Amino acid sequence: MLWYILVLLTQPHFRFPFLIPFHLGDIAIAGGVGLHIIHCMETSRPFFFFGPATKLAMLLMLVALMSHYFNPNQIDTTWNVDIDGLVKVCVVVILLEAQSSTIYRSVAIMGTTVVGTLWWIKGGVRLASAGMTWGSGDRLMGANVSIIKNPNDFAYLMVFMIPAYFYFFRISKNRYLRIAFLGCMGAAAYIALETGSRTGFLALATALILIAPVMWIHYKTTLIGSVVAGVLMFGLISVGNIDRFKSIKESVLVIFKQQEEYSEDVSQVDAESAESRVIKARAAWSVIVDYPFMGVGTNPRPRLFEGRENAGGMVHNEILMAGRHMGFPGMIIYLTAVLMPIVLGLRIHRMAKDYWPEIAALGLTVATQSCVVIVGGMFSPSLFHFPHMLTLTVATGTYVHLKNQIAAHSTPSLTQAHNPYSPTAVAGIQTH
Question: How many domains does the chain have?
Answer without folding.
Answer: 1
